[in-house]
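Final report, Chapter 2: Outcomes

The project's central promise was a pipeline that accepts a single protein chain and returns its three-dimensional structure in a standardized token representation, suitable for archiving and comparison. That pipeline is now operational. To close this chapter, we reproduce one record exactly as it appears in the project archive, with the input sequence first and the structure output second.
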Amino acid sequence: MRTTPIQHVEGSPRHGHGLGLLGLALGLVVGCGESPAVVEQLQLGKLALHPIEWHAAPLAVGRVAAIAETDDEVALFADTGVSLWSSGESQGRDSAVRSWRSAAVVPALGFSGQWLLGIDDEGRTQRLRFGLTQPLSIEDVSARYLLGGKRVSEVAALGGGLVGFVLEGRLALSDGQMLKQYELSLHGLVGQSGRAAGVTDTGVALFAAKSESLRQIALPAVLAVAFSPDGKLWAATADALYLEQDGKLAQAYRFESPQQVRGLSASATGVWVLLGDAVVLIRDGQLLLAPLPGLGTPVDAADLSLRLVGSPSGDAWLLGDTQVVRVGEDSGGGQDLVLWRKQMLPIFQRACQGCHLPSGSAHLDLSSYGAWSRFRHVLGQRVLEGQPTPMPPVGTGQLTPDELAAVSAWVARR
């Protein structure tokens, strides 16, 4: 093993305060050709996946380059522009930019909430602007991240208000108050819990923002990396999967020829893997497999452009030249959205929206899937148990037995 310095390129203070990490030396730990260790092999299992009807109307979005997704919103960045759906309903399209590189959901700068960011082909950082009375549009916020004049190729949230950006030959970190850059060439940027990781020419780079420490792990022909929900780093080559262990990447599974890995991406429930003819979910020490032809979707397994993107709901997206397919389990977040749209939304529209719209007298917005998901236990208390006061309020009408049964089933899903 050997240790060499990595140059800290720039710290740009703004408003007199920032990350407070100026001028610190970094350590770079590089593996010297040792063979990867082997951990206990993942156990094989089967996965029952289904197509998720996450949108209320047919899609015509073109070739999707990137996705940014929250509980309620799905933004597709495509060659027709950027399209937005909220709780399954289309919120329109902005076609001002038709070439995109990357996208992420990050903390909003200056106020609570989240921003949906996209990196366009010119290297600009664009955020989506939308609201009840505001049509969908995009805004160049490069300067807000102190990136004005710099060409960005990728973006990822690192947690704690910190956002990572890939520049040419550099990794940049910004919280809107301070920009720090490091000489590091990588792609396939991912982030979690204050750490960033990506693919380099020689293997995997793993950077910890708090300590400003960089670990370079040699892994020939690595394709992609992803953080699992427990914060561990996974990496994939064409024929094997590797798991972070004691500062190294240990082999966790090797695929038999001719099966090959085509993609790797994280979700809320595990790490998804795209194979030549199957989708795999790594979860709880298992390698759960679902054959692509058995998904009952228009997925073309022979499409060499097919890509996989994990969803924060636990689902997975399969993207091709003309395909946007979402797949998940019956208990997954996407299926939860389908159930809300088909069963809970009609109840809301009939019995709740008089008080629970965004500007309603109840001061509790229940007009979205995300709200019904977050307040699931409260709905059980108020609607089913009538505690501390019943909902709907006495004198404003009652739910039918079928509606009460639907609410009961909804509450029981979590």
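Archive annotation: The two ends are 48 Å apart (CA to CA).
This record, like all others produced under the grant, will remain available to the consortium after the project formally closes.
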